[in-house]
């Protein structure tokens, strides 16, 4: 009996030692992260609030739009860096994120944005154990403390933001384009000379090149045969305005293209820029 008790005692001792060593390792990561964060805050003269869960945040801008509630849809961008300035994700000029405030993840973003207005921005520091821990993620190494800034837009809807981005693009490039009631912008390069009007049943052969607003080509075709039922909504709004032989350039807001889903090289909520030549129309 005594021998068995001794064996059990040693087994229990081993478990306790293992538990305590794991606990010390976890606490060690916390203390190391905390020291890094405190040094960064001091070096950069930041005034940050520490949440009970361990992350830090600072309101950069209160925003000048409407107050944001958990039930409200919010459009936003965010970037992620290391404390040393290594950039792991940066904001994109051609797309953005969107979600209800109450569903924005990770939760530190949501907590930091609470009680702010549209157009606000906050800086968040994630200790590694609240980020990607010892495993890291992609190009983010093990036990990396991350700093991120999330910025919200004043616009409430994606189409409003898209319209602003398209107009800014047209102004920057010096392009004179017409805005269709559908919110698609178009520029006539060559007027068509064909006689057949384009309708839902027409078979079209077109040449096209599709680009993102940063100039990235995501698709092209020199002999694409289709009907209006086989194209994105933005094409369907504009092509019936023209006849065969027409060459046009159209700028499509994301909700009339691939919306918040994206497609291949096309990111979510990206407006698109197309050069289109209508080669033939068959009714």
UniProtKB/TrEMBL annotation:
Keywords: Isomerase, Rotamase
SUPFAM superfamilies according to UniProt: FKBP-like (SSF54534)
InterPro entries in the record: PPIase_dom_sf (IPR046357), PPIase_FKBP_dom (IPR001179)
Membrane-spanning ranges: none
Enzyme Commission number(s) from the entry: 5.2.1.8
Keyword Isomerase: yes
Pfam families xrefs: FKBP_C
Transport as UniProt keyword: no
Enzyme class (EC, first level): isomerase
Catalytic activity reported: [protein]-peptidylproline (omega=180) = [protein]-peptidylproline (omega=0)
Domain PPIase FKBP-type residues, every copy: 201-282
GO molecular function, one term: isomerase activity
Record family assignment: Belongs to the FKBP-type PPIase family.
PANTHER family: 39 KDA FK506-BINDING NUCLEAR PROTEIN (PTHR43811:SF19), FKBP-TYPE PEPTIDYL-PROLYL CIS-TRANS ISOMERASE FKPA (PTHR43811)
Protein name: Peptidyl-prolyl cis-trans isomerase
Native species: Pedobacter boryungensis
Taxonomic classification: Bacteria, Pseudomonadati, Bacteroidota, Sphingobacteriia, Sphingobacteriales
């Amino acid at each position: 009996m005594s021998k068995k008790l001794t064996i059990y005692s040693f087994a229990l001792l081993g478990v306790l030692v293992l538990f305590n060593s794991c606990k010390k390792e976890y606490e060690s990561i916390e203390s190391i992260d905390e020291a890094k964060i405190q040094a960064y805050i001091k070096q950069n003269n930041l005034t940050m609030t520490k949440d009970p869960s361990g992350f830090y945040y600072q309101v950069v801008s209160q925003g000048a739009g409407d107050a944001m509630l958990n039930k409200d849809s919010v459009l936003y961008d965010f970037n992620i860096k290391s404390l040393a300035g290594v950039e792991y994700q940066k904001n994109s000029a051609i797309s953005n994120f969107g979600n209800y405030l109450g569903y924005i993840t990770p939760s530190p973003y949501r907590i930091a944005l609470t009680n702010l207005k549209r157009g606000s921005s906050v800086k968040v520091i994630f200790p590694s154990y609240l980020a990607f821990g010892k495993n890291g993620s992609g190009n983010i190494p093990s036990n990396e403390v991350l700093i991120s800034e999330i910025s919200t837009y004043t616009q409430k809807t994606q189409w409003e933001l898209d319209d602003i981005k398209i107009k800014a693009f047209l102004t920057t490039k010096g392009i004179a384009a017409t805005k269709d009631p559908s919110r698609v912008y178009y520029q006539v390069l060559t007027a068509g000379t064909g006689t057949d009007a384009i309708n839902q049943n027409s078979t079209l052969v077109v040449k096209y090149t599709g680009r993102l607003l940063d100039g990235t080509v995501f698709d092209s075709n020199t002999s694409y045969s289709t009907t209006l039922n086989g194209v994105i909504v933005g094409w369907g709004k504009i092509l019936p305005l023209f006849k065969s032989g027409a060459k046009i350039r159209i700028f499509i807001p994301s909700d009339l293209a691939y919306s918040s889903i994206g497609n291949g090289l096309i990111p979510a909520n990206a407006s698109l820029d197309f050069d289109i030549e209508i080669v033939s129309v068959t009714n």
